[in-house]
Amino acid sequence: TKDVTKLGDLLVPSVGCGTISWSSNRLTELENWEIRSLISTACSENAAFFDTAERYGGNIKTAFGMGWGDTERMLQKHLSEAQAITSTNANKKLDPIVATKFTPSPWRSSAQSVVEACEQSRLRLGVDQIDLYQIHMPDIVQPLKFLGMGDNKDEMYWDGLAECYHRGLVKNVGVCNYGPTLVMKCQEALAKRGVPLASNQIAYSLIGRHNGAQETVDKCNELGVKVLAYYPFAMGLLTGKYSSSSSSMFADASASPSRKTKLEKSDLQKYKIDPLLTVLERIAEKRGKSVAQVALNYVICKGAIPIPGSRTEAQFVENIGAMGWRLTNTEIAMLELEADELGVGFDGAGFKRTSEKFVGYGVEKWRLD
């Protein structure tokens, strides 16, 4: 691909690949042939930009707070295999890019805890330097807050990021789920230590511009902080899969087969977006693209890098078809007009929400403000 975007000091494909849904086919080994095939294709297509996290593991393990680092290890295993094959590829121009994340928690109470976690991720990923190291969310996990014993550690974690940068453990640093105010505070704090803030990852899509998301994208674009957009399909809604007329020929392969829970499917079907899908289909047909590719291209046009999750090679190939072209301003205006008239904002489905997280003792929320 020649469709690249500047991210800190990196040049990355304009569409990334989320890894939260990756899991091994075996309980005792990190083996998944579909993911191996996906990574191999990504490398050969110069489109290898993977976003992972230390807390990502197999679905069942992660649900019980286990499996930390499993996805990082799986990525390293299959990426090294793919690079061995593609190292002689004359078409190879972009090195694979890997971003991972530090998870704030009550027992991580110092800047050194960020450095130690970074070292562990670096070892699991098998790299000298991590391309992009991100803080997974604001420090919202405060189990003793109800006793008046809350202790916000955001600034301490920023110091940890700066230390990782100055020690040469990471090439770039970023944050996730920060609103405009927190992004500005973080950027200023890092700047005092001579460290640039490269990115901010938030939930963002054509129907996910409310609750401060669009304001965050606008502020980040103004500050030179690249937005990485998760849920760019709104969990599949913007592929047409959950519409009342989902037999559309333009509903893509990237959302199937579905592993959504019954609760997630039930919640997704409550979002009534058929009028918007009609406009998406019309543009897709005219462009010779899928509905999903139009939805991703919209995010690119707004100055962000979409990070759709991919579990299979077919999903990945579908997603990178959003690169190499751009919607016109008229098409963007048509889509936004229709989306705004719906009066619908995507907030998640089931236990997967755009601005809250189940943290063991309950649910903690954040706001992009």
Protein architecture, described:
The radius of gyration is 20 Å and the shape is globular. The chain starts with a strand and ends with a strand. It has an eight-stranded parallel beta sheet. α1 (33-44) runs parallel beside α11 (313-320) and α4 crosses α5 (154-166). Helices cover 38% and strands 14% of the residues. The chain has twelve helices and 14 strands. Mean pLDDT is 89; it is low at 247-256. The longest helix has 17 residues, at 70-86. The protein has 369 residues and is α/β, with parallel strands linked by helices.
Rounded to the nearest angstrom, the distance between the terminal CA atoms is 36 Å
Radius of gyration: 20 Å
Main sheet specs: 8 strands, parallel
The 3D shape can be described as: globular
H/I helix tally: 12
What's the helical proportion of residues? Answer: 25-40%
Placed side by side, the strands forming the largest sheet appear as 3-4-5-6-7-8-9-10
What is the element string, with H for helices and E for strands? Answer: EEEHEHHEHEHEHEHEHHHEHHEEEE
Low-confidence stretches: 247-256
**Total DSSP E strands:** 14
Amount of beta strand: 5-15%
Structural class: alpha/beta
Mean of all residue-level pLDDT scores: 89
